[in-house]
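Many introductory courses stop at the sequence. We go one step further.
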Amino acid sequence: MLKRIGIAGVTGLVGTTLLRILESGPQEITDLRLFASSRSTGAKVRFRDRDYEVKEVEPEGFKDLDVAFFCLEAGLAKKLAPKVAKHCPVIDKSSEFRLRDDVPLVVPEVNPDALKGHKNIIANPNCTTIPLVVALNPLHRRFGLERVWLASYQSASGAGRELLDQLHYETEFIALRRPPDTTGSPLPAQLADNVIPQIDALDAHGHSGEELKTIRETARILGLPGLKVTSTCVRVPVTIGHSLAVTGRFSRAVKVGDALRVLKDAPGIVLSPGNELATPADCRDKDAVFVCRVRPGAEPEELSFWVTTDNLRKGAALNAVQIAGLLLPA
């Protein structure tokens, strides 16, 4: 059972969300240690009617804990996670360890057995990959997945508090019918009243970093190293909630009715009945992956559908807490 917990990066959006999930959960936490960068050192964070002081991240501070949640950027995770892993298991949300053969990349509804034989570092997948594989996995098990096409519509919070604040700021200008002030924005263009068809740097072939994550992580989590994935990732002016338009091609013909029955019974999925829609606003502060608009593709073997989830919860913090629950069951 989770009783002694450390969180590195607790003042960020994912760290804050993780703390709130633990606060409302059943865990009887007896030792909570909170860490962040030096600029947040000394801050007070409330948890279950008690104030905790945030300390600077330091490996020795994680001694004798049951688990450490890392909500840090990749560079810091690379430096600190192996040192902390000498003291306790580390569940890391950064991209640093996701494709390493000796580090399991886990979505509990999909590949919990990947945790076997872990070496105290477990990677939490990308916030777009997680809902994608939760939706694809039951369909793959029934129909045999061969190819995926996707377009993602990713909220500002997926890039952190700085971009979320920038979106709020720019939206005020739009409400006043004025051009937004983008001075200091982390993006190359305004986000309010706009979409940006690039997330992260482009490689030599024109694929963005985010697109490569969805391509490579999806294949690894599903255990399909030869899976072909075509991905376009787009930043949209939404505060919280990542969505995907997905088409899968399977090894045999897929009837929509059969697919609906599979999705309805799948763990972690809320399937919208009939023609009801699921939007980012519907999924906020909820734990499930929402699926709607299930329909035939261009060929009998293809199926198209819409997926959305709270990227701070199931797309990040909740998935990490679920992994911890597998490591240390009640």
